[in-house]
Amino acid sequence: MTDLERKHDRTPVPKEWAYAPAPESRDVVSLDERYGHYVGGKWLEPSETYTTISPATEEPLAEVGQATPEEVEAAVAAARDAFENGWSGISAAERAKYLFRIARILQERSREFAVLESLNGGKPIKESRDVDLPLAAAHFFYYAGWADKLEYAFPNRRPRPVGVAGQIIPWNFPLLMLSWKIAPALAAGNTVVLKPAETTPLSALLFADVLRQAELPPGVVNIVTGDGRTGAALVKSEDVDKIAFTGSTDVGKAIQRELAGTGKKLTLELGGKAANIIFDDAALDQAVEGIVNGIYFNQGHVCCAGSRLLVQESIYEPVVEKLKRRLTTLRVGDPLDKNTDVGAINSEQQLEKIRELVESGEQEGAEIYQPPCRLPEKGYWFVPTVFTNVAQSYRIAQEEIFGPVLSVLTFRTPEEAVEKANNTPYGLSAGVWTEKGSRILWMAERLRAGVVWANTFNRFDPSSPFGGYKESGFGREGGRHGLEPYLRFDNEPSHD
Ligand code: NAP
Ligand code: MG
Asked: What residue owns the CA closest to ligand 1's atom 9?
């Protein structure tokens, strides 16, 4: 083989040259056999329980509570009591102190939380360690800073807390979504009842121990676990003043119907089908990394994932070739292995949904590519997948797959890129790759998406508001905007 041939040789790396396993130790996490609900600063013995598992091995991890409507009411009552008798009356600087403490403790215990997050949710430790945990702590730090500056954030509007916030979060970023919800709520002076997703309750339950360490007054944060029925009971509870929901568009719509006319405040962060748009003047190798990060990060379980790739026709072939080659180097497997790029699918139910949509893509006529990949025998797995020859009407181009599956489409002109990018019921995020600053601004003005990334993708910062248009929901999380849903202002009706 000549040097040139060697340089272009694309045969997969021989097995013996592959990375040796580098598993993170599980010892740092100690799990109870059984967890109750965290209500009024105490553990409430649950009347019903279910088993939470590791999706990578199907191994049972712990028994957790399935909160009944009565148990949800107990949590709401504890939150109300804490709100009326203490929390809303203490000084803002004092509230900030607790938020700073929580942020510090999350940093100190970040390894423990990262391992638990990967164990219960299936995401690679590399991501929970380097993304979820630092961002969760950063969120508490950020909102701690706002707590005593609300009058400056909203001048002449006399901001007041809303009261009791009911918060329902999904399984894709369990601790991070908890932070997005709890940090602004507390900074604004509210108390909280939070329901984590059925499949990923453990980091929220460990967070209760952070609250104990931070000496947060009892009842300020309450955590009830359970499935959708528990979430529905929280939405129905009469004594909740605000609901914050992140999850599917269908459930979001049902919640909106339920709350219509009650005067309760509502924010919805729902699904997405983001376009990641590559122009022919983009730095292609960086763009390919951005495409990979856009759709295979967190197994594609990301509401703002770049699941529709729009490539300018003139560079279609090199982009797809580079992308396929890059896919052969992704390491799929044990979430606790530090080398792993793509971990386990979060649940059997989600795996079924991905399979069904991928099958529809093949039936409708798209061309599928999956790199050679050996998957573990137990657990829930899906090979990173690329579809080419995708028409805009195909389900894989319209519906949120929420898995490691990319649909590739092409365009010729910037106008066509905008039209195709906006041709979706969603509007959460988009990506633009081009060398031209003017084109970035031109595109950003026209894309109907809450977040537009330029020459990057899936970047988050607590100071930057995040949220959607159209069926991706309403309301913003993060930044000063993220405080607003947790505040009432003069001349604004309250629900009672
Ligand atoms: P989901 O059912 O909407 O779950 C979100 C949260 O709402 C979970 O805590 C869920 O509990 C709870 N919930 C379910 N039904 C409820 C109800 N009637 N009233 C109040 N709360 C309720 O979403 P999923 O079933 O986990 O996933 C389904 C699809 O949603 C995914 O395939 C994906 O397309 C989308 N999704 C989007 C996001 C996002 O970040 N925007 C996140 C997750 C999922 P359970 O955990 O028990 O269901
Ligand atoms: Mg569900």
From this structure: 197
Q: Which atom of ligand 1 is nearest to the CA of 227?
A: 47
Using the mean position of ligand 2's atoms as its centre, give its distance from the Cα of residue 116 in Å: 21
- Of 223, 245, 251, best ligand 1 pocket probe by most atoms within 8 Å of the beta carbon: 251
Angle at which helix 228-236 crosses helix 249-259, to 10 degrees, equals 20
Residues spanned by the domain of 144:
26-269+473-488
In the reported structure, the alpha carbon of residue 124 is separated from the centroid of ligand 1 by a whole-number distance in angstroms of 21
Residue 399 known to be catalytic: no
Q: What domain count does the chain have? A: 2
Give pLDDT tens digits for 209-259. 999 999 999 999 999 999 999 999 999 999 999 999 999 999 999 999 999
pTM over 0.85: yes
Together in a domain, 340 and 431: yes
Active-site residue 45, yes or no? no
Q: Are residues 235 and 185 in the same domain?
A: yes
Strand order from edge to edge, sheet including 164-168: 42-44, 37-39, 221-223, 191-195, 164-168, 242-246, 265-269, 473-474
Give the pLDDT confidence of 311-346 residue by residue, as tens digits: 999 999 999 999 999 999 999 999 999 999 999 999
Q: What is the CA radius of gyration of the chain?
A: 23
